[in-house]
Each structure stands twice: as structure tokens, then as C-alpha cells.
Amino acid sequence: MSYKKTLNLPKTDFPMKGNLPEKEKELLAIWEKMNIYAAMRKGKGEKKFVLHDGPPYANGNVHIGTVLNKYLKDVVVKYWSMSGYDTPYVPGWDCHGMPIEHNVARAMREKKQDVDVLELRKACRTYAEKYVTIQREEFKRMGYVGDWEHPYLTMDYQYEARILETFKSLVEMGYIYRGLRPIHWCPVCKTALANVEVEYALHESPSIYVKFPLRNALGGVDVPTSILIWTTTPWTLPANVAIALKSDYDYVAFAADGEAYIVAEALLSSVASALGIKEPQVLKRIKGAELDSLKCKPPMSERDSVVVMADFVSLEQGTGCVHMAPGHGYDDYQMGVRHGLDIVSPVDEEGKFTDEVPEYAGKIVFDANPLIVENLTKKGIILASSRITHSYPECWRCQSPLIFRAQEQWFFDVGKKDLRKRCLDSTRAIAWVPNWSRDRMVDALEARPDWCLSRQRAWGVPIPAVYCADCGEALLDTGIIDRVISLVKENGCDVWFTASLKEIVPDGTVCTKCGGSQFVKEKDILDVWFDSSISSLRVVKDDGEPWPVDLFLEAVDQHRGWFQLSLIVAMATEESSPYKTCLTHGLVLDPQRRKMSKKLGNAVAPEEVWSKYGADILRLWFSSVDYTSDMGFGDEMLSPVVDVYRKIRNSFRFMLGNIYDYDDKKHRVSYGELGELDRYLMHKLQLLILKAREAYESFKFFRVYHMIHNFCVSALSQFYFDIMKDVLYTFAPDSKERRGAQTVLHDVLTVLVRLTAPILSFTCEEAWLSFPLGRPEKSVFLSEMPRPEPSLQDEGLASRWDRLVEVRDEVLVALERAREKKMIGNALESRLVLYSEDDNVKNLLKKHADLLDQLFIVSGVELSNSKGDLGEGSYAGEKVDLLVSVQKARGEKCQRCWMYSTSVGLAEEFPHICEKCVRAIRETQTNTNGR
Ligand SMILES: [Zn+2]
Ligand SMILES: [Zn+2]
Ligand SMILES: [Zn+2]
């Protein structure tokens, strides 16, 4: 007789191999059909959790970093939705701006098309639409849930109108001004750059010491005297208007070649060695303050350069005397404003000197540098020159070195009405994850200059200003802005370029300066960051959803970008932060921690991962890392995650396979009637729920990952599953022991699948849909996140069993040793004799004597009262006072359950199996006959 047929072997449709790339597509179709996002929101009550999506840029395929960002958002949305909250989640895209315009204009130029502004804008719109569609499909492929059919696009007409409405409020409140100020400028892209668009790289520059002769002699020094400065930007010398010293520093005038030079005393020796002077002779000592307001002759202009006092002067390098060009530096500019200095900036938009510097007019400043050095050296004005390599700002777009250039621009005054202070106060009050990111935001806010809002580009929202045709005065008039807003609502922003001035400027509008009534339209557009800074207002507040929103969640570079700019705009217009909690994550780098880029060829396309391994593997990897710092990612990092995936999948499969004949309504064994081991697992399950929920709610998803993995391995596959296989397979199907184990498996499975669903969405849905008798909810995402059930916890039982598990671990080591010595093969070939001198251990073993062979998976356990019974070679426990002797099991091997028993052969009908198996078969036959 074959006994295999009498066993209850597992049955399930849930395959061992995931074949995720194919299976995921089926699941996506199911979600699409049931409109999972709408279904998740349906019937949810008043409680809302709003995560507002920061818009990625609609250019190119999605980057792995953006996929990570949206993944974290997806986990949050799914967790809170399953926890009973309504979770509106509207994804968005940033559609205007430089990178799109750049690509589109290049393509048009290549086709030799004339780039007319309206044609260009039209092509940019089409381009952005194309990438919105591509990226949307990519995000959906990852299983991300959201209102993908109704995303917000910053180029939607209504959105564009809202940008202008916010701008108008800021104008009314006095935050917007037009001013001459130095800004980072890319001579190649010919545009101003926002702070966030500036990158730093190593760059070689001249390093020169330049003399500024004093207009009047210095008392006590008989020879001609000059102040000596050090700079790395010779091209800024024509714009020099001042020299900054620190009032409490000690300065000296020292002699060289019949002249005297003033430098900070602390830097004298380093300056002297740069100048090749061995022992400089000090002629006079003087405090910085005593030099205040002296006038010098600058090297490249006829004006005066005046000595001013400044705190930022340091003794780190140079001469302690700092060349100031307010038109070419931000510190210099602020200094200039304070001291009423001229803001000189003789450089045009291509980075070329203007006619104001006749000698070098038309030359690009970087090309002029060596000529300036050569000429001034010849004239004896530069005393020493060399070259240095230092960190220098460059354009994020084209990698060209940037210049600071003063230009008339539109600014957002961040100091107005205490705005910066209010933003700082709110930053200190709201929650930051991780906590240190608050400091980063504080630093970024403190350092932020006024926000330069104008860009000299075409693809964006126009600044609705006009200029007087007669005198050039700029006019920002709310009457004009109102007209523009209503035109934009109907026609989009193109209308600014097509509408006549008559349509835009109300009758009777006159220039505030000269009274003229003819105007021309502003050509500049708004910084694209202004577009995205209003998104939570447009998408959440205007739609009547709870605002400030619960969460902003973006990469760490957004402290200077979207986090900050959204805060500034909301604080100015709504007197509130737009978010309650702000979460930041690190960047995804390559395995060597380098930035992924096309240039380096080290970028991993997310598409490669999901078509090779499946999106769930990428999801699992994302959850396995501590996202708070930067993460190294490469194909080779996926294999440990693939192993973990297999363990989780196999755990699901084992449970699904063993409840094939279990109907929870009919077969459930009540908690009180469950065995101790079953109740112990129920207890552990409650702890898992509690801790996993805590981890989800504090956004520590990697903890959830480790807990689930650990539970699957140590609580389930190496413990409960291993021990209960015998009960599940060999006991009569309807026996209380087997139904009890199935009750536990059923509960563990329904908990685990739901608990893991936000992380491993595809596989958990697949498992959910594979439940033998189905589930009341059509999707795991329509079910509820489990909550810990206090009545299923039993601390007393758990602490006893924790101790038993320690004993078991010792026994498993003893069995392993015996196996190594070839005393046994399978553990079932053995019988154990145990001895302990610890009364607690003794009592524990005695109390559970009936369970021990099941717990250790051996064919017999004997508790001995005398050490002598154990004989030579017994194993002594390391953590538990226990001696274990492994001996050959008694009796014969049962052909059905593989346990050794002296009862094998006693039943005539079944000569090869043990009495336990005989009973199981008879019980099954009785039950079957009875039906
Ligand atoms: Zn550039
Ligand atoms: Zn005028
Ligand atoms: Zn048996």
C-alpha cells in the first residue's frame, strides 16, 4: 500500500517561482479594471491622510531616484489607506522650464527651423505631454496607486492661472521688487540660474596679488604705499569699488623694492613667501579700523576704491584685504548696499566685457583673464601670480563655469514682513524625518538671498509686467495682472504673446514716472520653481482637501528647492507652512557611490530591473535600505534581495498550500483550545503587528522589511512550519491538532499578507487572490491593516516558550554535532536523553514532556535524573544548563511519518506504520465513510 495518498500534502495555485515580469502585468490589469485608487478611497470616512506629491520634471524616462521617491510615497499612501484613512493622492509633473526648452530648441535648430517663440512653446508643450505619458506608464508599472488619470500639470491653463494669482497676491503684499543684483549667470545658456541649479566642481583659476596704491600717503611711512589684495578672478577687477578689512585685525605696512604694502600681520609671512621676499621689513603696525574710509586707486578704472570694514574678512588665505566688486559677488553686493557703493557690472549676457572696459570689450571674461594678468604684471600692478585649483560654481545644465553678474531682475523679497523669520519659526515647529533634516532646512533658509524670479527664456509662465515705452519704467499693475489671469484661464499663457496691449492694459493706465501711456510687454518668464512652489495650494487647498497637508516627501536636495520655496510662498500668502511633516530621503548612487549619469554610463534604468526581475524585487530593495542617507545601487545588489523575496514567497506558499481544505467558518479552533505552540505563535504575531505598525508610522520601512523577513525565517520556516509539518501532513484532516495548526496558518497568512502589502504589493495581491476560499475583499488593498489583538497575547506562556526555544536551539546544535559524526542522518533516527542541574530547566522540561519529541523533531525524548545515564560524548549546552545525549531511536521507521517507533508492525492491517499513523488513517476512513 502507498501511504503517500493518506497524507495531507499541500495544494496551491500559488507557484514557487514568481515569474514576476509576466505575473505583474496580469495584476496591473486587475487593478486597472477595478480602478483600485477609487476603490481604496470609496467608503472611507472623515479621517484623511494627505501626502502631496512633489512634481518630477517631464523630461526623459524616469530615473531610479524618482522611482524610489514615488515608492516611498506609495508605501505611505497604501499603509494609511489600509489603516482606514481616506488618502487622496494626486501625482503631478513640472512641465515648464529650461531643460525642455533646451532640448526642443536644439531639435528645431537641427531641422533648420526658425525658432519663433509661439512655435517653440507649442513644441515644448507637446514634448512635456509626451514625457508625462511615458513617465506615468513607468510609475504605474511599479504598482504605484494614485489618481493617474487626473494628474496635475504645471502647464494646465488653470494651474498657470493659479501661478499668476499667487504672483498677484505677492505683488499686492509688496513682496515683489525689481532690482539690480548679482546673480549666478550661465554665459553659455544665457540665463540666470536659481541657487538649486548651481553645482560645484573643481576648476583652475589664476591666483594673483594686486596692489591698490593709496591716494594719500600713510602717516609715518615715507615711501609710496599700497593695500595688497589677493583674488582668483582678475576679470572682476574693472568692477572694483572697495576693499574690505576687518576693524580689529592688526595690519602691517612692510617694505619691498622701495615701496610699502599693507597686509594683515597674521598673513605677512605667507604673503612674503608668495612674493619671494625672505625677511620682510615692517615699517608700521596699524589696526584695521584706522584705515577705514581711505581711498585707493584701483588697477582697471579711474574711480576711487574705498576701504570699508567687514566681518566676513578672514585670515584663512589671501592678505586680509578683500577686493570688493558688488556687481560680481553676493557678499560684495550686500556690503555695497550697506555702504552705498556703486554696483558695477560691465559684462554682457554672453559673459563678454562691454564697452565700459574698452581694453577688453567683446572678450569673454575667462579668455580675458590671462591677458589681464599679463598686462597688469608688466605694469607692476600684479606682484605675483600663479594658478590654483578650487571648487567653483558651474551650470547644472551645461557644466560651464558661472559668473556673477548684476542685472535688473524681478525679486521676491524674503526679508519683507519678517518672512524669513516666520519661515524659520515654522521650520522649528513642524516635524522633520529624519530629525537632522530640520537643521539643513534652517541653514538653507538662513543662507537664502532674495529669490530671483525672472528668467530670460520662452517656455514658462510670463511675468505680467509692462514697461513704459517712453522712459522704460517697469509697471506691475494688479489691473493688468487680473486681465492676464482671465485670459490665461481661457487660453493658457501663450495669450501673453498673442494678445495686443489694448487687451492687456486697462484704459487710462499711465506710467507712474513720466505719465506716458504707451507700453511694451515684459519678455521674461517666471522661474520654474515658482510654478511648483504653489502646487499644494492649487491641488490640495483649492480643492477643499485638508491643508496644510500631512506630508511632503522628497529627496534631500529639496531643502534648497521645493520644500523651501513652497514654505516661503505659503508663509507669505497663507501665513502657514504647507506641510505638517517633511520627510527627506537620500540619493540613489552607483555602487561606488558616484552620481548616476549618462556620461559615466553607470545609470541603471528601472525598466531593466522590472523586466528582468519584476517590480516587486525593486520595491523590496527600496524597502531594505535606510533611505535617510545616500544609497549605492547596482544589479549585483539585488541578489540578496532576491533570496529574501524567495523566503517570503515560500512562506506564503507553505501557508496557502496547507489551508487548502480549511474553511475558517467551519474549522476554526477557538483560542482556548489551541495547543501551546499555536498560542505562542499567535502571541508573536501580535508583537509583529505592533512593531511593524510603529515602524510604518515612523516611516522606518527598512525595519518593517527586516521584521517580516525575520519572522518568515525564524518564527515560521525554521520553527513553526518545521515542527508542525508532521501534524499538518500526517494527522487526520479533521483532527483538532491539524485544524488548530490551520487556524494559526490562516491567521498568520492573512496578517502577514496585509502587513507586507504596502511594500511587496504585487506578490501580496497575488497571495490574497490565491486564498483557497477567497477573501471578502477583492483586493488586499481594500482590506484592513491588522491591529494587535490583546486577547491573543499571553506573556506568561510566551516567556516560558522563549525559554523552551533556547533549549531547542541547544538540542539542535547537539543533533548537528551527531550528524557530523555520522551517528545519525535524519534527526528522526535519534532519541534524546536530557539532563539538567538547573531546577527551572528541569521543571520546564517536565512540564512539556509530552511535546518535546515534536518540538525537537526526534523519535523520543527521555528526561534523566542522573548524569551517569547519559554516557560519554554528550553535548553540554552553552547558554542553558543542559546535557544532551543523542542515541539511536528505538523501534522501526514508520513508512508513513518516518518517525521511529516500537509500535511499527503491531497493527496487522498496516504492518509498516506506527500506531499514531494507524489511528490517523482509521479516523480519516471513519470520517469519510460517515459523510
Ligand atoms: Zn549653462
Ligand atoms: Zn514712463
Ligand atoms: Zn507514523
Structure description:
- By secondary structure, this protein is an alpha/beta fold.
- The chain has four domains: 7-14 and 632-793, Isoleucyl-tRNA Synthetase, Domain 1; 49-147 and 417-453 and 527-585, Rossmann fold; 192-404, Isoleucyl-tRNA Synthetase, domain 2 (Alpha-Beta Complex), CATH 3.90.740; 813-890, hypothetical protein PF0899 fold (2-Layer Sandwich), CATH 3.30.2320.20.
- The protein has 29 helices and 33 strands.
- It has a six-stranded mixed beta sheet, with helices on both faces. A four-stranded parallel beta sheet has the order 1-24-25-17, sandwiched between helices.
- A hairpin with a 4-residue loop joins strand 4 and strand 5.
- Helix 23 (701-730) runs antiparallel to helix 24.
- The longest helix is centred in the C-terminal third of the chain and has 30 residues, at 701-730.
- The chain is elongated and about 125 Å long.
- The model has no long low-confidence stretch (mean pLDDT 94).
- It binds zinc ion (3 copies).
- One zinc ion is lined by residues 468, 470-471, 473, 511, 513-514, 516.
- Its main location: cytoplasm.
- Monomer.
- A motif ('HIGH' region) lies at residues 56-66.
- One of its GO terms (cellular component) is cytosol.
- Residues 891-918 form the Zinc finger FPG/IleRS-type domain.
